[in-house]
Every structure is written in C-alpha cells, then in structure tokens.
C-alpha cells in the first residue's frame, strides 16, 4: 500500500472533531462534496469503511477509530516538531489554551498585551465547558487547559493555580447588605449554562433550608454569553452567581455588588497539560502569566 494522503487524513480528523460534514468543510474552506470525496478516497485507499452515516450525523467504525488515533498522533507530532523549531524564543510561535468562559474573559486582555509586545506570537484561547477542556487537552488540540476541581488523569500533568471564589452577584444598590432568600426570589435569578451547578453550591450552603434546588428559583432572564451575564444584574434586573473572574472581566463591574456569604464557595483552579510534554520557554511564560492572573482572584 502506498503512503496515505496527508490531506485526506487531516480532513478525517477535522470531520471527527466537528461531527458534521458541513461544518468540517466550512472549517477547511472546502465544499461539502469535496469533503465527502476526501473521506471516500481515504476509505478506498484503506479498503474499508470509516464512518457509518446516520440521520443526523455518523458513527465511526472500528477502522474509523483506529484511523482517528493515527490522524491525532500525526497532528500532535507535527505541532511538537513546529514548536521545537522556535522553542528558544518565548515570544515567537503558537500557543493554545482552553478554559471556562469567565476565566477566558478575565485572562484575554493580558494575552493581548503579550501579543502586542511579541509580533511573532500567536495565541488561541478557547472557552469551553469543563469536560470539553479535559478532552481537548487529552486529544492534543490544546497545549494547556484550566479546570476547576481535581481532574486527575493518568495522561495529564497538573499544577494548582489557586482558589477562585464563586460570588453571589447583586445590583450595586445592594452594596453592604445581606439578602434573605426571599429577597433573591423577589429579584429573580439571571440563569446561564453553569447556573444550576453554581446555585446548588452557593445557595445550598448559605440559604438552607429555604433553598430547595435550582428548579425552584424564579428565573428573571437566561443568557449563555459569559460577557453578558452580569449586564442585567448591573441594570438592577436580578442577581446571579459567577466565578470572580467573570465579574473582574466585566467592564461595568462598579454597578455590581457581592453579597457577603457566611459559607464562601471556592473553585480550585488547576493548569493541565499532556504528560511528557517538553515545556518550551513560550510554554513557561504562558504558565507564569496564567499563574499571576489566577493569583488576583483570591
């Protein structure tokens, strides 16, 4: 068998990441028929089917799983090789990091400052849920991830960054006042994707037995854009619960107040990366910046 076409292999890897022929084609700036042709040629070369199409989406065959492992391995090796060519310069090359939306909002201005000082540096920052962060680092899609909690895995290294408070966020007029649970219900909860988890952690610890689950909260509004979650609170329309980084990254934070809590809730932040990864000067500088920014959250 002749060597496998690297373009077909990369198309297959992207297809498996996107789980959609249409989205994969758009990401590779191809037509959907062109994308399908790449997969068909790869299957023909291997002499076996790689995907079983379903409505909607598809499933990988056993051969497809093996091919995906090969594609990911090749991709990681290529990234490591390219990175090794300029490892001696902390301000040149590419870096990628994935973390929560709140920490991304908080961290990105510092990364912009770094890139402004280093024209040869390119940084990708991806906001994702906790499980996606873990899987992205394990797959080699990102150099580093930031998670909350103890996400131990045999293939990962981990460094504790510090504790980030979960804040009960109120309109600015509540500055210095301690709300009762009935006050919170009158205000109404600004709901977001992590809202149920955060409500159980903070309200369950501080307002028992009045709090009986997030399903019983009066929802005033729902929003899934991290930068917009504090906006209705700043406008006096309700309250919410967010990691402190989500508040510090909000431009109108002077219009917000944090409720004093008898039982503070802390998220343990940890930096994760693939075990065995050789840390370049660029990697070390990124880790130092993340460490410094996380230290501002205590």
UniProtKB/TrEMBL annotation:
Residues 4-61 form the HTH lysR-type domain. Belongs to the LysR transcriptional regulatory family. Gene3D superfamilies: Periplasmic binding protein-like II (3.40.190.10), Winged helix-like DNA-binding domain superfamily/Winged helix DNA-binding domain (1.10.10.10). This is LysR family transcriptional regulator. Keywords: DNA-binding, Transcription, Transcription regulation. Pfam families: HTH_1 (PF00126), LysR_substrate (PF03466). The keyword Kinase does not apply.
């Amino acid at each position: 068998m002749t060597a496998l076409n690297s373009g077909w292999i990369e198309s297959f890897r992207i297809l498996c990441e996107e789980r959609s022929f249409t989205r994969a084609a758009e990401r590779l700036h191809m037509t959907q028929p062109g994308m399908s042709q790449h997969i068909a040629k790869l299957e023909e070369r291997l002499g076996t089917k790689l995907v079983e199409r379903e409505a909607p989406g598809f499933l990988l065959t056993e051969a497809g799983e093996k091919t995906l492992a090969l594609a990911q391995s090749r991709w990681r090796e290529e990234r490591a090789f390219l990175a090794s060519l300029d490892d001696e310069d902390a301000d040149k090359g590419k870096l990628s990091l994935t973390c929560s939306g709140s920490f991304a909002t908080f961290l990105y201005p510092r990364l912009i400052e770094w890139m402004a000082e280093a024209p040869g540096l390119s940084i990708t920052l991806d906001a994702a849920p906790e499980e996606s962060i873990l899987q992205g680092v394990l797959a080699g899609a990102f150099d580093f991830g930031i998670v909350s909690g103890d996400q131990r895995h045999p293939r990962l290294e981990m460094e504790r960054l510090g504790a980030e408070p979960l804040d009960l966020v109120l309109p600015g007029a509540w500055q210095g006042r301690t709300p009762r649970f009935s006050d919170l219900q009158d205000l109404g909860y600004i709901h977001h994707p992590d809202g149920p988890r955060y409500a159980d952690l903070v309200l369950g610890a501080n307002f028992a037995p009045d709090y009986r689950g997030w399903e019983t909260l009066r929802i005033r509004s729902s929003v899934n854009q991290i930068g917009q979650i504090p906006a209705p609170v700043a406008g006096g329309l309700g309250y919410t619960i967010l990691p402190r980084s989500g508040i510090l990254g909000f431009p109108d934070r002077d219009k917000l107040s944090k409720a004093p809590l008898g039982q503070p809730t802390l998220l343990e932040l940890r930096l994760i990366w693939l075990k065995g990864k050789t840390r370049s000067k660029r990697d070390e500088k990124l880790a130092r910046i993340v460490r410094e920014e996380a230290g501002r959250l205590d």
